[in-house]
Write the C-alpha cells for this entry.
Amino acid sequence: MSNLITIERHILEQQKYFPEAHGELTDLLTDVAFAAKLVRREVVRAGLVDILGFAGSTNVQGEEVKKLDLFANEKIISAIGQHGRFAVMGSEENEGIIIPPKNETGSYALLFDPLDGSSNIDVNVSVGTIFSIYRLKGDDPCKASINDCLQHGYEQVAAGYVIYGSSVVMVYTTGHGVHGFTYDPTIGEFLLSHENIITPKSGKYYSINEGSFAQFNDGTKKYLDYIKEEDPATNRPYSTRYIGSLVADFHRNLLTGGVFVYPPTTKHLSGKLRLMYEANPLAFICEQAGGRATDGRNRILDIQPTSLHQRTPLYIGSEEDVIIAEEFEQGLR
Ligand SMILES: O=P(O)(O)OC[C@H]1O[C@](O)(COP(=O)(O)O)[C@@H](O)[C@@H]1O
Ligand SMILES: [Mg+2]
Ligand SMILES: [Mg+2]
C-alpha cells in the first residue's frame, strides 16, 4: 500500500462505484476534507488563540457551547456551503436546518457534529468532527427541506469522521469499505494510512461512563458485572477505556476491537447521543468494517428519524461484543 495516495485521489477512485454521480460526491467529500484542515489549524494551536472556553450561549440540546464548537460549525458551513453542492445542512449547533448560500445547485444533504467531545476541548484530549451525507429526496434543490435530512441511516451515500488527536486522521466510507487517512502537516495532505479497515469480531475494551452507574437500568448493571468477571476463556475481564469523546472511543475500538455503550439512563431515557450526526454515520462505518451498531434492540441504520436532534441509546463496535451487551439490555442474560 503506497502512503502517497491523497484522500482526494482515493475519493476520485471511489467514483467508479457512482457512475450516476458525475463526480459530485467526489467534490463533496473533498470539501469536507478541506473543512477538516481548517478546523485542525485552530485545534492544534488552541491554547495560543482565543478559542478555548465557553462561548456564553447554549445550544438546542441545552448544553453550554464551547468557542471551538462555534468556530468549527461556522468554518464547516462556510467552507462547504460556498460551493453550492449541498442543498441543505443539519448541525448539532443549529436548531433548524441550514440552507447554504448557493443551494440551488446542490443535490445532497449534509448532517454533521462540528466538534465532538466538547468536554475535552480545553484539556487537550482528542476531539473530532462527524459527518453524514444523503442524496436529496426530490429533484429541486430549492425545495430542499428537513425531510431530506430525516432519512434512514441506510440511505447514507457517505459518512465519516475526523479525529484531532496526537495525529489527525480522517476516516470515511461510501459504502465500499472503510479507509483512513493521516494528515501530513509538512505537505498539508491527508494520506492513505489505513486501507479497508476491518474491525475484529471481538475485542478487549469496553467503553461506558460508569460514573452514571446509579442511572443505569438492571440490564446495564448486570452487563458491567459480567464484563469484569474473571474468565480467560471469554477474554474477560475486559479493560475499561473511556475518553469521553465518542469519535475517539469509537476509533480505538474500530481498530483494536471492543464495544462502546451509551445506554438509556434515568437522565437520558433515550440515551444521550444524537441519531442523525453521531449514531448514523458511525453505524454506517462500523457495519462497513464488519461491526455492529444498535440501540440495544434495533439496527441504528433502520431507525426512522423523526427530528433533527433526536437521541438514541448506542451499542457499537465488535459484533460479538455488541450482541452480548444487547442481550443484557434485553434481559436475555
Ligand atoms: O460525559 P458523558 O455523559 O459520558 O458524555 C460523553 C459523550 O458526550 C459527547 O461529548 C457528546 O458529543 P458533543 O461533544 O458533540 O456534544 C460524546 O462525544 C461523548 O461520547
Ligand atoms: Mg458529539
Ligand atoms: Mg458536538
Q: What stands out?
A: The chain has two domains: 7-194, 205-330. The chain has a mean pLDDT of 93.
